[in-house]
Design a protein that fits this description.
The chain has helices spanning about 1-15, 25-35, 55-85, 90-125, 130-140, 150-160, 175-185, 190, 220-230, 240-245, 255-270, 275-295, 305-310, 315-320, 335-355, 360-394. With about 400 residues, it is mainly α. The longest helix is centred in the first third of the chain and has 34 residues, at about 90-125. Helix 12 runs parallel beside helix 15 (about 335-355).
């Protein structure tokens, strides 16, 4: 490592102001800080009031995502073996899944790195480690059958429109990874949602996601529809199986236990807010119960989904743990985080239930709350100021 450090120190003058490779300084700086820790202070958001630097924060988030990738790969292989009725080991399932998801990861990071380097060189600012988390999240929000060219376009949209046009990391108001998924959701809905997104073989065999089964159905109970689908198809849509994650869905969303363990890890290392997570679950359960009360007065089957089913269906827990808690686009006050989280949960159920054309819900809920997060913090701060003024006046 000493020889590598010496090599980088020898090359550094060529990338500094006045050097012959000055314009490529962001590329050199990114390489240096990935290989070695830096003693430079952050000049723009996000700021971390701790001895841990932003690079280490981002790396810890990526570490929390690794189990989601591993299980996602195993699940891809398992669903294929289940579909065609043959038995396979976990290792065989893992390799089958890796064949599907590694190209998605590679295209995502290649597209993201291209735009990060381009904007870094043009604007002459350092390359932020934030793109590592963004590019690590995007593949986990996609089905394994997504066309690779769509991955490249969506990643470009998320990085450029979701972040760079606002000034880069710390300046964006929307979560870039969710912007990428939203782009695909509205431009290529057949490939990102519904009953044709889990292609398991060249002949195009696919299975529906759990949320797509009751979506659009009328005069039926959602749980009965899921049970009927389990009997008719090769997939098991029971509550326990949805908790364990052995169902069709986006690569990283299915196993809720792994996601909860990831949440515990992030809370333990102190880089995420438990208030947002708990608030989202509270909002989901309250609004889910309200929708159940309204269910007898409507023919919409989505209103009959029990709150505990909402919890394990779709990407709710994944979005809540890894996206709603994102430090730049969420609320920053403790009270604001409670409000932010509760409204994310409430809006998720409303979007899922009232408009079955968008059966997921969590993606749009978080993006909408990203827009209102500064307003929430503003009113929380103003409320605290008024309370202090009253206290001082006494």
């Amino acid at each position: 490592m000493k020889s590598l450090r010496s090599l980088l120190d020898d090359l550094a003058p060529h990338f500094e102001s006045g050097g012959k490779f000055e314009k490529f300084a962001p590329v050199f700086e990114a390489t240096d800080t990935i290989l070695f820790s830096t003693d430079e202070r952050t000049s723009s958001g996000p700021h971390v009031r701790d001895s841990v630097d932003i690079k280490r924060v981002m790396i810890l988030v990526v570490i929390a995502l690794i189990p989601c990738y591993i299980f996602g790969a195993i699940n891809v292989g398992y669903q294929k073996s289940l579909t065609f009725g043959y038995s396979s080991s976990w290792i065989e399932n893992l390799f089958t899944g890796l064949i599907s998801i590694i190209p998605i990861i590679a295209v995502t990071f290649a597209s993201g790195a291209f735009w990060e380097l381009l904007f870094g060189i043009v604007r002459k600012h350092p390359i932020s480690e934030g793109f590592l988390v963004t590019c690590a999240l995007i593949p986990l929000t996609l089905p394994p059958s997504i066309p690779l060219w769509q991955v490249a376009v969506a990643t470009s949209f998320g990085i450029v429109i979701g972040k760079e046009i606002f000034g880069g990391v710390g300046m964006n108001i929307f979560n870039p990874a969710l912007m990428a998924r939203a782009f695909l959701y509205f431009t290529y809905p057949v490939d990102i949602s519904g009953d044709k997104v889990w292609a398991l073989a060249p002949d195009g065999y696919s299975g529906p996601t759990a949320l797509s089964i009751p979506a659009g159905q009328t005069n039926a109970n959602a749980v009965d529809l899921l049970n009927q689908a389990s009997a008719d198809l090769a997939f098991d849509y029971s509550w326990m199986n949805m908790l364990l994650g052995w169902i069709p869905g986006s690569i990283g969303e299915t196993n809720k236990i792994i996601i909860i363990l990831g949440a515990g890890f992030l809370i333990l290392v102190g880089i995420t807010s438990w208030r947002v997570m708990v608030g989202s679950v509270i909002g989901l359960f309250v609004m889910g119960y309200i929708m159940n009360l309204l269910s007898p007065y409507s023919s919409n089957a989505m209103l009959s989904i029990p709150p505990h089913y909402h919890l394990v269906m779709g990407s709710f827990l994944f979005g809540t743990v890894f996206m709603a808690t994102e430090p730049v686009t969420g609320a920053h006050t403790d009270s604001g985080r409670w409000i932010f989280g509760i409204l994310v949960g409430v809006l998720t159920v409303i979007i899922r239930s009232v408009n079955p054309a968008y059966p997921e819900g969590i993606m749009l809920a978080i993006l909408l709350m990203n827009a209102f997060a500064p307003l929430i913090d503003y009113f929380v701060v103003q409320s605290n100021i008024k309370k202090r003024m009253v206290r001082y006046a006494q």
